[in-house]
Design goal:
Rossmann fold; eight-stranded mixed sheet; two-stranded antiparallel sheet; 6 helices
Length: 209
Amino acid sequence: MSNLTVITHPLVQHKLTLMRRKDASSNSFRRLLGELSQLMAYEVTRDMPLSPVQIETPLETMTGQMIDGKKLVLVSILRAGNGFLDGMLNVVPGARVGHIGLYRDPATLQAVEYYFKMPAGIDERDTIVVDPMLATGNSAVACMARLKQLKPRSIKFVCLLAVPEGIARLQQAHPDVSIFTAAIDRELNDHGYILPGLGDAGDRIFGTK
């Protein structure tokens, strides 16, 4: 099964609770998501490889360690995934960015692709897929299948909230994909929304209904 990491840092949990409140404004929701995504990025990138680099300090020459951000691709599942990007890019500004557009058919709850654009040379890069919710898992599964056609070096999936059925669906379809989340909520309702959840993340980010 996929490695599953629940990021329980107090700052992550505090900001997530503020985001869940139904009276949080779109402005507040976006700001908190940016802050929270930066905090989660530290955990998600913990195992990024380092390379020795010779530098000059004010006093002498030394060998330091640096990551190659250009070897990382952040993949946003449109549209709500874009709320994660700025925070992640603040931590790894050299990362490339890809987008995949998926919408959920309201009748079948299946993911339908409408857009796909990735950086070149992705077979030499590690990828981190971002989407606020892992609900039915259908969008995440479809994204991973599409992304794997380009043979990236590795894939991680990062979300704010997940439910057991979504985790199981993604793990069953893509056991090699590591999953990172800030919380595992109770269940899905009849319309495929997470309970207790935080509502529709895209609507709350962009102020739409």
